[in-house]
Amino acid sequence: MKDRIEQLRSDFEAALGSATDASELEALRIAYLGKRGHIAALMQGLREVEDKKTAGQLINSLKTEVEDRIKNADEALRRAAVDREIREAKKYNPTLAFPREMGSYHPITLATREVEEIFRTMGFTIENYAEIVDDYECFEALNIPKHHPARDMQDTYYLENGQLLKTHTSAAQNAIMKKYGAPLRAIFPGRCFRNESTDACHENTFFQMEGMMIDEDISISNLIYFMKTMLSEVFKRDVKVRLRPGFFPFVEPGFELDINCAICGGEGCPSCKNSGWLELCPCGMIHPNVLEAGGIDTERYTGFAFGLGLTRLAMMKYGVKDIRDFNSGSLKALSQFKSR
Ligand code: PHE
Q1: Does domain 107-337 correspond to CATH entry 3.30.565.10?
Q2: Which of 129, 250, 255 to mutate to test the pocket of ligand 1 (most atoms within 8 A of CB)?
Q3: Where are the domains of the chain?
Q4: Could you identify which of 72, 217, 256, 287 might form a hypothetical disulfide with 244, taking C-beta atoms 3.0 to 4.6 angstroms apart as the criterion?
Q5: Is pLDDT at 339 greater than 70 in this prediction?
Q6: Shortest-distance Cα residue to atom 5 of ligand 1
Q7: 3-state DSSP: the chain helix, strand, coil percent, rounded to 5?
């Protein structure tokens, strides 16, 4: 009997060692501790044994041992399973779980950054200015008094408190002159708003990039130089430009700088109102009244200002035929641009 018990113990040891999962362990438990298992069989065998007490004790201690060992092995297996889960969870890469679609920058953002970079290298400060301004900033300080006919061209959205959505980036000129004084080189991009009937080249919401340079002896040649440098950098080619006289109450003399339409090559198309030219950059020498309103000594300083049509520039640069595409929110149109 003793030998049978020892044999069973070593068989159990071996079987336990090779059990690798819960179901194998359960099979082992049934084989040894089940009603018809090995231990029950040993109990049956007791009948033929003389020293029933000793044999009984041995069988019982084997039984307890088998029970404990199976319980421990079961716990160890469970712990190992949890550990494995944790380990594998660490390796889990959530970015692989769903397809990632990279967004892309809006073409206006790309154009803005490019022009900013060009002017930054020429020593210009970049300023950010509010979209909601007051009448003084948008008109009065720019030599456009109330009832001036120039206001008709720049109808906009008014707030109940009398403030308005700026119609041009020039609305920041006064504040920037007051902030920096002369000498001054600054550009300030911004979103502008006007009451417009929209078509392929007009939008009620568009972007401009204003620039100002104020110093001693600033003349139209400085203005032309900076415009030419900027445009040839942006288009990476020799861009044809023309200067026409233009009227803006805040510059004297004032010009319209046009560039040759890149979409039709000058033939005439809806984007350029069939003229072959695109008004890109109204500009001029800052009017003394405007300098004075900004606290600049007009005896000593002169300056130029320009209001580059950033939206127009982006149309030219990227060959966008319809200005309305920019605000369309259409991913088909806008996702074609690079993401960084
Ligand atoms: N602010 C003018 C406009 O929007 C453009 C401009 C800026 C003209 C600076 C001259 C100088 O129409």
Answers
A1: no
A2: 250
A3: 2-96, 107-337
A4: 256
A5: no
A6: 307
A7: 50, 20, 35
